[in-house]
Amino acid sequence: MKKTIIQLKEFQKIISKKDYEDEEHKYLSKENFKELISFIEEFVGSEEQEDVMNFIKVYKAKNRNLGTVVKVNNYVGLIQLKSGYQIEILPKIDFISDDENNNITKKIFLKMLRSLKDFPGKNFKNADLKTDKMNLYEIFINMYLNDVRIIVKNGLKSTYVTKEDNIKFYKGKLKVSQHIKMNFAHKERFYMAYDEFLIDRPENRLIKSTLLKLQKLTSSSQNSKEIGQLLIAFEMVETSTNYEKDFSKVSIDRSTKDYEMLMKWSKIFLFNKSFTTFSGKTSTRAILFRMEKIFESYVAQQIKNKFLQHNWKVSIQDKTYHLFDKPEPRFRLKPDIVLSKNNKIIILDTKWKRLIPNNTKNYGISSADMYQMYAYAKKYEKNKITPEIWVLYPKIAEMTEIKPFESNDKVKINIFFVDLNMDINIDINKDNNRFVDKLYNKILEKN
Predict the structure, then answer these.
(1) Could you give the CA distance from residue 239 to residue 428 in angstroms, rounded to a whole number?
(2) What phi and psi, each to the nearest 5 degrees, are found at residue 427?
(3) From 359's CA, which of 39, 247, 310, 376 has a CA 20 to 30 Å away?
(4) Strand ranges inside 275-434, DSSP E
(5) What is the mean pLDDT of the segment spanning 57-61?
(6) Is 257 in contact with 150 (CB distance < 8 Å)?
(7) Which burial class, exposed, middle or buried, applies to 389 when counting CB atoms under 10 A from its CB (0-12, 13-18, 19+)?
(8) Cβ(294)–Cβ(113) under 8 Å?
(9) DSSP-derived secondary structure for 310-332
(10) Any idea what the Cα angle at residue 47 is, between residues 36 and 316, rounded to 5°?
(11) How many Cβ atoms from other residues are within 10 Å of residue 233's Cβ?
């Protein structure tokens, strides 16, 4: 079955009326549109997965010609429907030049993903990845294969496996009852239980099972060829017959550290799980990421690397203060980044939100966000010095700068636009970024 794909960006809408497809609306056939609606409805009414409606909204359009509309918000990744049809959702990033086929977007997205603490793709070093030839699902498969390649190169880990067999020599422990039952007429044999040092351990069984599943799913000739080559190393390993049981036996220690991320990948692929709370109850697969978390993690990583070099103390997700202190601490404040040096304190908070070039509407800045920043300024005040506050938004083409907001009691909130595209020829394997240099210089100017 030939797989097809629809590619869209955050905030775009999906419709099933081909005649009304435009830049804002992406067309999906009625059959696949119905499957997508079913995927969304799987999670309705579940408390654990209730926030699915925060990233995909289904509603009737005001324009009756459009019918039912599905809008994608704030989550990026890939949904693969039971039919094999794939919906690839990319972050909305503005570029100076045209981003043909969204290749630059994919590269930036992959670079940002690697900053996530629990993302199992940190070993991925292939700067020559052909993003124009692979969708996100194939890229994630390629990342998994890259990690498998590493453990195969280093040698698959072995462990002692207990085996039982009716053999011609005495080895291990005699199983008396089975021996009497099976060897009454065969005095030359012994029914024994013995240990052998084998690579047929739970971790390797799960990897082999994952490779076999991905071999059926991949539509990439490069990935298919790689899987075939890797499976040769697993010839002496059985496939897993009980995923849950084998995962419960996985042992990650100093000697098996290389398997840690692979087990996360295998769980995602084998159970149709995702990096979020979403998991397919049917054969639908969803690998989705909350974009504000990626942006927050990526910016924090870059700022930490930069400011530590200049002897600043950096605290990520700082938990020093609560909004109220009596009768006991309540409502913990948790700014994304707190920088301190000598007697200066600078607080930075990231917001994955596209502002609008309209000052009469406060540029689209949320009042709640400003109240939050004001609370930070007051609670982190030290020696009568009010900390500097910076709110970091993704850059959009229509806006370059917003003047700081200032109050009469010395609270000043600066707005900074993070330009994710300052390095057009971006290298996903390097952490240097010009936006951090620009932010550092701006902060330095004010201090």
Answers:
(1) 34
(2) -110, 115
(3) 376
(4) 285-290, 313-316, 322-324, 330-332, 337-341, 344-350, 388-394, 405-406, 412-418
(5) 87
(6) no
(7) buried
(8) yes
(9) TT-EEEET--S-EEE-SSS-EEE
(10) 95
(11) 20
**At 60, which helix (H) or strand (E)?**
strand 56-60
Verify cis geometry, omega within 30 degrees of 0, for the bond prior to 327.
yes
Distance set, CA 197 to CA 77, 161, 251 (Å): 41, 6, 16
Phi, psi of 242 (to 5 degrees): -150, 95
Which two three-digit tokens encode residue 26? 């992406």
CB 337 within 8 Å of CB 303: yes
3-state class percentages of the chain: helix first, strand second, coil last, to nearest 5? 35, 20, 40
- Residue 280 binned pLDDT confidence (cut-offs 50, 70, 90): very low
Residue 316 in contact with residue 261, Cβ under 8 Å? no
Q: Report the sign of the C-alpha dihedral through residues 163, 167, 173, 176, in that order.
A: positive
* pTM (predicted TM-score): 0.80
Largest CA distance in the chain: 100
Tokens of 325: 């202190």
Residues written for the chain: 447
Beta partners for residue 394, in sequence order: 418
Do the beta carbons of residue 333 and residue 321 sit within 8 Å? yes
Alpha carbon distance 210, 144 (integer Å):
10
Q: Which amino acid is at 219?
A: S
Q: Is 404 left (phi over 0), alpha (psi -120 to 50) or beta?
A: beta
Q: Tell me the residue type at 69.
A: V
**pLDDT mean over 395-418:** 90
One-letter amino acid of 147: D
> What is the distance between the alpha carbons of residues 380 and 15, in angstroms, rounded to a whole number?
48
Let me know: does 414 contact 389? Beta carbons within 8 Å.
yes
Gap between the Cα atoms of 432 and 435, Å rounded: 9
Structure tokens, 427: 């290298």
Alpha-carbon distance values, 122 to 143, 211, 283 (Å): 9, 19, 27
**d(Cα 366, Cα 301) in Å, to the nearest integer?**
25
Cα–Cα distance, 147 to 136 (Å, whole number)? 17
**Residue 237: partners with Cβ closer than 8 Å, 6 or more residues away:** 156, 199, 200, 204, 205, 207, 208
8 A C-beta contact, residue 158 and residue 199: yes
